[in-house]
Structures are given as structure tokens and as C-alpha cells.
Amino acid sequence: MRAAAFLYPWDVVGDPEAAQRIAGLGIRQVTLASAYHSTRALTPRHPRHRIVTARHSAVLYPPDPAHWAGHELRPRVQDWMPGPDPFGEAARALAAAGLDVHSWVVLAHNSRLGTDHPSSVVRNAYGDPYPWAPCIARPEVHDHLVALAAEAAVRPGARGTELESCGWYGMAHLHAHDKIGGVPLSGAAQYLMSLCFCPVCCRGYAELGLEGEELRTAVVRALEPLWAGAADPAGADGRAGEWAAVEALLGAGRAAVTRAWRDGVAGRIRRATVAAVRAAATGGFRVLLHADPAAHRCGPNAGVDPVAVFGYADGVVVPCGGGAAARADALAPFAAAPGAGGAAIAANFAVVSGMGGSPGTLAADAAHAASLGATELRLYHAGLASDADLAAVRTALAGRSAR
User: Fold this and answer.
1) How far is CA 328 from CA 100, 168, 366, in A?
2) Do the beta carbons of residue 34 and residue 88 sit within 8 Å?
3) Residue 95: partners with Cβ closer than 8 Å, 6 or more residues away
4) What is the CA 143 to chain-centroid distance, rounded?
5) Quick check: helix, strand or coil at residue 305?
6) What is the sign of the dihedral through the CA atoms of 276, 279, 280 and 284?
7) What is the pLDDT along the chain (403 residues), one digit of tens a residue?
8) How many CB atoms lie within 10 A of CB 71?
9) Cα dihedral sign for 372, 377, 381, 382?
């Protein structure tokens, strides 16, 4: 069972022991960030620093000016690491340690882009902008994400790519000094708060027979009792129950229109993005999507249609936290989908104890994921984990190899 770990270039650059240490975990692949959102990250073993602050979304390599000529939106370049190409420097060190390097590209999650171009972001039913969430229905955003994927994915030394947030982003977002938890919102309410009402999306709803103002009014009306403290109709367990709760809040007809518009937009951008990566790559380059089997879900693991996704992508990376039932709910739709045979279905496990991961149960969790149809493992995140966490990962992977 192929195992890969996520890594940032700053975990490797400047640490001559990093690549061999990662290879010693027993993994075959590193998924290395080439385009990433803003973050503050711990580097618990680096000889020169303990905290890296990536102040804004950026590419971690030198972008090609010719590639971006004529584009309204362009990527920012990082300035918190030494050297012009930290991705390339880290990739070379990892490859020299015997590891396959695949790029890790974050797409529709970019606070700097939203700050610089406020007209290009998701706007909720109340008119509030989400600077971290470019609206993928807008032509300039579509063009930007396709161009970014083609350049950031196919870096020298990369043998494949994993595309994160290749779809809708919404309200949910880790943010500095967050203060939005005063009214807990279920997944259904999060969906309503993530619907976009920019002019492009309102035209899209209207083309499907639902005026944007009617939908906006319905969303505000559905959410108003929640702000007053009423119980959130969370619905039955699982993703199907979550969508049933959306229909209960919004009405089945209106809910269907939002899904038709958003599914169409997301499907088009995913296909265009994957096609652009393939056009830029040489043969054998794998393209995987970070994905959720519930098409209505937003975020880094953007919702996809399991029936269609293997028709254009080589596989999916699926979040598998939350226990056995949640894992089954996430993996089973992909394993049962047409075209799943031969596709990569990578079960993604958090292995950082301090961030809610469970490296001590990795062997059992991976075995359960395999029984559900997972063909590969992803480990989040080798650079952030403590020495004890990494030791648990080594033990788990060694045990699986022994079988």
C-alpha cells in the first residue's frame, strides 16, 4: 500500500538531515507544497528555526512571467525563505534520498488574492466577502486557477501532483483569532453560509429558473432562527443526512438549483484544471484531487461526484479522520464508483497528535481503510509531527510492510 507524507519546502531547505529522516519513515513518496495558503507552521527539528510564518498565499518557486502574460490575476511569490526556488531545492534533496516527489497545489483558497481583488471572491447572502475564497464561477478566477495548476503542478522533479481545494471554498476557514463559533452551525447551515451571491452566481441561478434575490431571501430566512438560538436541523448522520437538512432549510427545489449551478461550475473547473496539468506534463504524471464524496461540501477537500471523478483524474485523496463510521462514509462511495478499479484512492490520516491526529492507531486505521477500498495512504504532516509521532508512524508502516 503506497504511503506518502505531506511536507513543506521549509521543512527540508536548510536542514541537511531532513530528507533522510523522512525517507526513514518507510514512505515511498513526499507530497511537497509548491503553491500554498498563508500559515504559521512549527518546524520541531530544523537546525535554524522553530516557527515559519508564511504571511500570504504564494507560490514556492519562481513563476514564469511569460506564462502569466495577459492574466488579470497572478500568483504572489514567497519572501520568507532563502533562495529563488525552495520547492526545487527541497525536491532535489528528497529525490536524492530515494523518494518520489509529487507537488501539492492549493487552488481556490487564497486570502491574498481575495484581498487584492475583492470583486473576485465568494459573497454570502448577507453581502459579506470571503477574501480567502475566490469564486470559481468568475471567469478571471477560472483562468487563474487553471494557469496556476499547470505551472505549480508540473515543477522540475515532480512525478505527479495532488490538487487541493479544486472546487468551491466557503465559510469554514481557519483564521487568526477566530471568533465565529458563538453560534454553532451544522454542515447544512455551513452550506447556506457558503452559497455565493456575486453577480456571476446570481446570473447562474437565474438561468436555472431561480432569481438570485429570491434565493438570497430564502437563505436569510432559513438562517435567522439559528442566530436567535434555535436548534440547527442537522439532519441524520452522514453526508446524505446533511443534504437532507439543506433541503429542509431551503426547500428541495431551491436546493436543487444551487446544486445544479455549483456542481456544473465545479465540474468544469476540475476538468479544465486536470487537462491543463496533463498538457504541461510528460507521460506517467499522476493527477490526484483532494476530494469529498458529497458534492455539496466546500473546502480543501472539495466535494466531487464519485461516479464521474475517475473519468478525468487518476485518483482522490480522501480525509479519513473521525472514526470507523466516518471513514466508511468517506471512502465507500469512491470505492464503489465506476472506474475505481485501477484508480488511486488515498486515505488521508492526521498523524500529528497535537492537532488531533492518532499516529498510535495508524496501522489499525490503515487496515480498516484498505478493507473499505483505499489503495494508498497519505500522512498529514511529516514536518509538523513530533519525534514521538514520527516514531509511531515508522512502527505502523514497518508493521504493514511485514505483512
Assistant:
1) 29, 23, 12
2) no
3) 101, 157
4) 19
5) coil
6) positive
7) 899 999 999 999 999 999 999 999 999 999 999 999 999 999 999 999 999 999 999 999 999 999 999 999 999 999 999 999 999 999 999 999 999 999 999 999 999 999 999 999 999 999 999 999 999 999 999 999 999 999 999 999 999 999 999 999 999 887 766 777 788 889 999 999 999 999 999 999 999 999 999 999 999 999 999 999 887 765 556 888 899 999 999 999 999 999 999 999 999 999 999 999 999 998 899 999 999 999 999 999 999 999 999 999 999 999 999 899 999 999 999 999 999 999 999 999 999 999 999 999 999 999 999 999 999 999 999 999 999 999 999 999 997 664 4
8) 13
9) positive
Q: What is the pTM of this model?
A: 0.97
- As beta bridge partners, residue 315 has 288, 344
The three cell numbers locating residue 139: 471567469
The region, left, alpha or beta by phi > 0 then psi within -120 to 50, assigned to residue 203 is alpha
Element of type H or E holding 30:
strand 29-36
* Long-range CB pairs of 326-333, under 8 A, 24+ apart, other chains included: 327/365, 327/368, 327/369, 327/372, 328/372, 329/238, 329/239, 329/293, 330/292, 330/293, 331/369, 331/372, 331/373, 331/374, 332/293, 332/372, 332/373, 333/293, 333/306
